[in-house]
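User: I'm curious whether this sequence folds into something compact or stays loose and floppy. Could you predict its structure so I can see for myself?
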Amino acid sequence: MAWGNSPTLSSFESIVEGEGATVVLGFNEPDMSSQSNLSPSDAATLWMQYIQPLKTQHNVILGAPAVSSSPGGLPWLASFLDACKDLGCTIDFIPLHWYGDGVQNFYNYISSAHGEFPGYPIWVTEFASTNSDPTEVASFMTASIAYLDTLDWIERYAWFGYFRDDDTSEYSLLDSNGNLNELGTIYAAYPSN
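Assistant: Here's the prediction. I'll summarize afterward.
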């Protein structure tokens, strides 16, 4: 994944080629000032300069910038796609991020994204329940994964995240020793992820 207009962006193509990557995600949450922090038009320009060559020269699959689930995320993505139309960007799929509470809120968000961008498959590349009750988080995970598996427009999904429990959230998948915790065991048992 590219970050923003960082100094490493100029070497992104050689990094991707050196890793043998076949899929690239666009900028990380460019709609957020604390993340990639790019305007849609700047992101489209950078896309054509640094990311589009991965498709045209290396046949890499390109995921759009992964916007946050904040109120400005999907509008930012729509503006980016509009800017891309004029420039000729290739977008193969839409990656989404979602953090919040309530399985219906998650369903509403991904359905809204699909409704706004129906011509693209969706990858939910980061999602998690931010509820402080571990039972609620496990219930959210079980229900949301079962639901995602029924949607033909969701190509892939990934829970956030595979990191050690540090007592700051209930959604980590590892215990403090780096082994799967109860939530990690539930997630790992699903065959489609």
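Summary: The first helix runs from residue 12 to 19. The domain at 7-189 is CATH 3.20.20.80 (TIM Barrel).
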